[in-house]
Amino acid sequence: MWDEEEPRRTEKPYLWVVFFLLLLGMSSIFLLRPGVNPFPPEQASPNNEAPVVSLIDTRAHGQPLFIASAQTGVWAVHREGTRTVVRFLNALGDEQWAETVPVDNALVASSGRYIVVGEVGQQRFYVYHARQKLVLAVTSPGSLQALSINQTGEVFVAFTVPEVDPLSLRTEVAFYSALGHLAWRHSLSEQQPLAVKQSQNGNTVALLSLSFASNVTGSLTVYSRHGEKLFAHNLDERPGYLAVRADGAGVAVTAGNSIHFFDRQGRLTLRHDAGGAVENLASLGQHVVFSVLRRSLLNFRPEYRAVVLGEDGKVAFEHRSRQPIVALSTAPESRDIFIGTTTSATLSSHTGEPKWSLQHTWQEAYRVASLDGAHYLIIKGDGQVVQVRGD
Question: pLDDT, tens digit, for every residue of 23-33?
Answer without folding.
Answer: 666 554 444 44
